[in-house]
Write a structure and sequence with these properties.
heterodimer; A: about 240 residues; alpha/beta; Rossmann fold; 4-stranded antiparallel sheet; 9 helices; about 25% strand; globular; B: about 280 residues; mainly alpha; MetI-like fold; about 80% helix
């Protein structure tokens, strides 16, 4: 059974159709990279998976839980999907360690001592063992995003969602975040990544989806699609990004 | 011109201190109550959005009329029931009806509360505090037949007055917290109350501090207006002393300095709190 299943999903903002009948299924262990021009609906598609956006028609099922379920079911679904945001969205009043401990303590009811142990291990994994007591405001963008990845992993999701994780970063800070994302992928995590990093798509992605005008225009192997774009639209798009 | 006479101030000190004590009591209790009301109404008006428009006001008035007619009907039914029925039966049935109606309309309760909160803020911010306190002290007893003492009336006025302003302070602070923090909490699968209590709340509380300092100082000074209902607070005490000794310069000067000390203390305290809770 697939981890995420889109069934004829329609998302509208007012009269504006952002997702126009999306069918998509994502299997365990896939690293799906979603690209597309701005306004094509790629971020919206990602945010529909964990119900940060509600859909108007169709259904999305995440690990057997529907996004159209009631409140408690939606919260359960969200705990299966860790989310990393473009703007990091770390809790500014908490240290890096407290940020990572927050989810396990408040959503899974884990004891603080146990959560602390796990959080320290995660922060070590993302290379921030020396920054655990720093506040987000004292960290660089790249460091903040790595804390955010650790925070998302801390709730032990079966799926990780990345919404343009490097777009708010200076070029020299991007590689440290991409490196951590590559490590996460290599650990076998199922990932859906909205990004403009074609290098990441080629090296780490197992599947590339090109979205245009609210529809899936291409879906296939990243290397093949990027080396030999089968359509003019993808060719044009890649020329603009590169 | 008469010369400034310090001994007048020393002689007036005991009465002025009595007044200061009452001013502090009224302000403190008023602000505590106002903070509770302000937080409740502020949270509701932030997260349950209802527009106060001509149509919604009309719907609210219609609802009130229907409720009034229902109450009349129910008391008529109660009065025309046979005497053999025990006295507690009809009140119990009424209670059950009320619970059943609330149960059916549970979805609308937050909307109704948000609407009422907005009307409350509109009315309180839109009328002078002097009019409010005189209405509560002089008019309410005439309407409802309750007697209300001056000091409780003063405290109550300050509660509802500061509550309306604090509601807007709370709303402003909550709305200023970046939406991304709420989304980060939602994405973790937290229920809304936890997002509010552990994520948005702590950030918003810090942002409220300057405006709350303002409100504390304003409410303290506004308590001087309760002179109109004869509450023996600081300003009233000063006025009474002057009525017997005519030493305006000394007494109003002393009253002003006491207010300045009190407001200065509030300002310093909040500066300290702001400094201690700053986010790096």
């Amino acid at each position: 059974m697939s981890i995420v299943e889109f069934k004829n999903v329609v998302k509208r903002f007012g009269d504006n159709v952002v997702l126009d009948g999306i069918d998509l299924s994502i299997e365990k262990g896939e690293v799906v990279v979603i690209v597309g021009p701005s306004g094509s609906g790629k971020s919206t598609l990602l945010r529909c998976i964990n119900v940060l956006e509600t859909i108007q028609d169709g259904d999305i099922v995440v690990n057997g839980l529907s996004v159209r379920g009631k409140g408690s079911q939606v919260r359960e679904l969200r705990r299966e999907a860790g989310m990393v945001f473009q703007q990091f969205n770390l809790f500014p009043q908490l240290t890096a360690l407290e940020n990572v401990m927050f989810g396990p303590v408040h959503t899974r009811g884990l004891a603080r001592s146990k959560a602390r142990e796990e959080a320290l291990a995660l922060l070590d994994k993302v290379g921030l063992a020396s920054r655990v007591d720093h506040y987000p405001g004292q960290l660089s963008g790249g460091q903040q995003q790595r804390v955010a990845i650790a925070r998302a992993l801390a709730i032990k999701p079966i799926l990780m969602l990345f919404d343009e994780p490097t777009s708010a970063l200076d070029p020299e800070l991007r590689h440290e975040v991409l490196k951590v994302m590559q490590d996460v992928a290599q650990s076998g995590m199922t990932m859906v990544v909205v990004t403009h990093e074609m290098e990441f798509a080629r090296k780490v992605g197992t599947r590339l989806i090109f979205i245009d005008g609210g529809k899936i225009a291409e879906d296939g192997n990243p290397n093949e699609l990027l080396s030999n774009p089968p359509s003019q639209r993808l060719k044009d798009f890649l020329q603009h990004v590169a | 011109m008469t010369s400034f006479d310090w001994s007048v101030i020393w002689a007036a000190m005991p009465s002025l201190m009595e007044g200061t004590k009452l001013t502090i009591q009224i302000t403190l209790l008023g602000l505590i109550g106002g903070t509770i009301i302000g937080f409740l109404t502020g949270v509701i008006t932030t997260y349950v959005r209802v527009q106060v428009t001509g149509r919604s006001v009309l719907a609210a008035v219609a609802t009130l009329v229907v409720l009034y007619l229902l109450a009349r009907l129910s008391s008529w039914v109660g009065a025309s029931l046979p005497d053999s029925l025990p006295g507690w039966v009809w009140p119990l049935i009424q209670l059950l009806i009320v619970i059943a109606v609330l149960w059916r309309l549970a979805r609308f309760i937050p909307i109704a509360l948000s609407f009422l909160s907005q009307v409350y803020i509109l009315v309180i911010r839109g009328t002078p505090i002097v009019v409010q306190v005189m209405f509560i002290y002089f008019a309410v007893p005439l309407i409802f037949g309750w007697r209300i003492e001056a000091v409780p009336a003063a405290i109550f006025t300050l509660v509802i007055n500061s509550g309306a302003y604090i509601a807007e302070i709370v709303r402003g602070a909550l709305q200023s917290v970046p939406k991304g923090l709420k989304e980060a909490g939602e994405a973790m699968g937290l229920p809304f109350w936890k997002i509010l209590a552990y994520i948005i709340g702590p950030v918003a509380l810090r942002r409220m501090i300057p405006a709350m300092g303002n409100q504390c100082i304003i409410s303290l000074k506004d308590s001087s207006l309760f002179i109109v209902i004869g509450v023996a607070e600081l300003t009233r005490q000063g006025q009474e002393i002057i009525a017997s000794n005519f030493r305006s310069v000394e007494i109003w000067g002393a009253v002003a300095v006491i207010y300045l000390i009190l407001t200065g203390f509030i300002a310093l305290t909040l500066k300290f709190v702001e400094h201690r809770t700053q986010i790096v």
